[in-house]
Design a protein that fits this description.
- By secondary structure, this protein is α/β, with parallel strands linked by helices.
- It contains 7 helices and 9 strands, in the order αββββαββαβαββααα.
- It has a 4-stranded mixed beta sheet.
- Helix 3 links the parallel strand 6 and strand 7.
- Helix 5 runs antiparallel to helix 6 and helix 6 packs antiparallel against helix 7.
- It starts with a helix and ends with a helix.
């Protein structure tokens, strides 16, 4: 995960949610709660042959018929009724700086029922579908509109998954993809165009996460520059940061 370096450096505390506790791998500074996050109502959780497909939504058979390489992995092998928890109601979390979420189509419900907790957040890293693979799965457009209404703007495409439409194949390989977008991880950031509307902690968190998680050095520098303007940092901090970035770039070349 992009935040691993921060956790290993002791600069982040991670709270995770996973109703399938047997799939949890605990990393440094991590706590995992056995909750399914959503709208606070009861749902049917569907376990699939490959756990990464498991969801509160049902895989869409008509869509999977066009992407048959996923059909076996998406086969539902078990169902369980469970209660979901609204993000706003989870007492174990006092403040969120960054939310990373990938819950197979349930992301929009979390955003809509977590508006209070997400008020402090400066980054949201979410999966979004370009073609819904589950019945009733919100599209990328719906997620984008919802997050913009909560004060976020799109920052980067962290990962994009493409596929190939059945029955065509390249060299007889059903896994070789062409141009059709399926889904992807998209990073949103709190709208930074009016930094005076952010508190000092938010500006600090935005700069740290931009640098450590995404190599967004321009955004990190922008945050540092604003902290200088507000008297939190000294002017020479900007030069030191530029030197740091130059060293990083040189080491990677």
């Amino acid at each position: 995960p992009p935040y691993r370096g921060l956790a290993e450096a002791g600069l982040a505390r991670i709270t995770g949610f996973e109703p399938q506790q047997d799939t949890v791998v605990i990393g440094p500074a991590e706590t995992h709660l056995p909750y399914a996050v959503g709208n606070g109502k009861g749902v049917t959780f569907r376990t699939c042959a490959y756990s990464g497909w498991s969801s509160t939504l049902k895989p869409d058979a008509s869509t999977l018929n066009l992407f048959r390489q996923f059909a076996t992995s998406a086969e539902v092998i078990g169902e369980e009724r469970m209660k979901t928890h609204r993000l706003d109601d989870i007492a174990e979390i006092e403040r969120i700086d960054m939310l990373k979420i990938d819950i197979q189509g349930g992301e929009l419900a979390v955003f809509r029922h977590g508006e209070k907790k997400l008020t402090d957040a400066v980054f949201i890293h979410t999966e979004a579908a370009f073609i819904p693979l589950y019945e009733g799965q919100p599209s990328f457009g719906e997620i984008d509109v919802a997050l913009r209404k909560q004060g976020f703007v799109a920052h980067s495409f962290y990962h994009i998954k493409r596929s190939i439409i059945h029955p065509f194949q390249l060299s007889g390989d059903p896994w070789k993809s062409l141009n059709q977008l399926l889904d992807g991880d998209i990073v949103y950031v709190r709208d930074f165009r009016n930094p005076d509307e952010l508190d000092i902690r938010q500006v600090k968190a935005m700069g740290l996460i931009a640098h450590a998680c995404y190599d967004s050095w321009d955004l990190a520098y922008y945050c540092l520059d604003h902290l200088v303007t507000r008297g939190v940092l000294q002017q020479e901090s900007l030069g030191r940061y530029l030197n740091l970035v130059n060293r990083i770039m040189a080491a990677r070349s």
